[in-house]
Specification:
single chain, alpha/beta, Rossmann fold, nine-stranded mixed beta sheet, 11 helices, 33% helix, globular
């Protein structure tokens, strides 16, 4: 009996997973669009989804509807016009095997995406490009786990952009509980790919994305709606029964509408047949991935004869983070599928060595007294909402 039939026959009654698993988000108590269901409901829902398609043509019709519905319900239909990025790049620091720069660019006229650009210190490229969105942690993109993985990928030969969630770190033009936060973050991720591909040393055919928790949501949402992404590694977020506890993940009906019904496992599956690594653990809402979500996702890859392109690393004794073992799995996967140099970060016996990365405690800020945000920057959520609508009108 194959694993997917086993899921359908052997589901057991689940419990609603407690929400407060290692998340530190200011938006946790905001109204959400059905952010969770029971584990059993998640199993049953995936079983229903599996009966709605049996061939590649049937899956692709379903996938097309889900993609269109995500964009529509995220208020990105039509897509906004792509304004000039007007990148601001400054403060280059030399580290062992890589450099770091402070970056801002406009995703909408007057609205800035902020972050740090990590580049290989040697080589001419073109290099792979990797986006590193972060989760709902107080320090945002400057949390050590984000700095370390960004630096390691750069040492391996990728140009890496670690960028802020709306309302975090340098992205203070709107609060994270803004009504448009999901719309803005998905659009920011699309524009972040525009930024990476605008760099002369980036290979537009080798683009990856990896993030944990809310950054995992950003990873699989971007992979669902932007064909340019070549490799995806969502960490501790792919779940059939939990859709995220924040407006930026489930504040709009991207999972359910009168035209579609889906969940995060199926949204992740939209990436098929391109390479995807799903990292899960035993102490949050991804605890059932090996028995529930991954078999469904693998069944999608199977219709493309691409089962070898999707992997699951499940760490049953670990919790909700992007810790060393999770990062190690990602490094190896990205090296394999983006053509990165894994030997640059391994010891002679093949072990991953993160010792030569620098955790910067003070110079990662994009805007400061000497480098203020431009005076024409939009001042608040209302002004950003108006700019969004104007850009969508131009995008028609």
């Amino acid at each position: 009996m194959n694993s997917w039939r086993w899921i359908k026959l052997c589901g057991r009654l689940g419990k609603i997973l407690p929400f407060a698993v290692a998340l530190t988000t200011a938006a946790a108590d905001l109204p959400m669009n059905e952010p969770r269901q029971t584990e059993e409901q998640g199993r049953e829902q995936l079983a229903r989804f599996s009966q709605s398609w049996h061939t590649r043509a049937e899956w692709e019709a379903r996938a097309k509807n889900i993609r269109e519905s995500i964009l529509r319900e995220a208020h990105l239909t039509p897509l906004p016009a792509r304004c000039d990025l007007k990148p601001i790049i400054w403060g280059k620091r030399q580290c062992k095997g890589y450099t770091i720069e402070n970056v801002a660019f406009e995703s909408l006229p007057g609205f800035f995406v902020t972050g740090n650009l990590y580049r290989p210190a040697a080589g001419k490229g073109p290099f792979a490009g990797v986006l590193c969105p972060h989760g709902h942690f107080v320090r945002g993109r400057v949390i050590p786990q984000t700095q370390i993985r960004s630096a390691m990928l750069a040492r391996m030969g990728a140009v890496v952009f670690a960028y802020d969630m709306v309302g975090y770190t340098d992205s203070t033009q709107a609060k994270h509980d803004d009504a448009n936060v999901l719309t803005l973050q998905l659009w920011d991720s699309i524009r972040a790919l525009d930024f990476l591909t605008s760099l002369l040393d980036v290979d537009a055919k080798r683009l990856g994305c990896t993030g944990e928790s809310g950054g995992g949501t950003q990873t699989f949402l971007l992979g669902a709606v932007d064909d340019r992404l070549a490799v995806s590694a969502p960490v501790v977020m792919v779940s059939a029964h939990f859709f995220g506890g924040c407006k930026c993940e489930s504040g709009l009906p991207i999972h359910h509408s009168d035209r579609h019904d889906t969940d995060n496992a199926e949204i992740a599956a939209l990436f098929a047949p391109k390479p995807m690594l799903i990292v899960s653990d035993g102490k949050d809402w991804t605890k059932n991935v090996t028995q529930v979500e991954f078999p469904y996702i693998r069944s999608v890859y199977k219709i493309y004869h691409a089962e070898d392109r999707v992997e699951n690393v499940h760490l049953a004794s670990e919790g909700h983070d992007y810790g060393p073992s999770k990062r190690e799995a990602m490094y190896r996967f990205m090296a394999k599928h983006l053509g990165l140099n894994l030997k640059a970060v391994t010891t002679p016996d093949g072990k991953i060595d993160e010792a030569d990365t620098t955790v910067d405690e003070g110079s990662l800020a994009v805007f400061d007294a000497e480098h203020p945000r431009p005076a024409y920057a939009l001042k608040d959520g209302a002004a950003i909402a108006e700019a969004l609508e104007r850009s969508k009108a131009k995008g028609l």
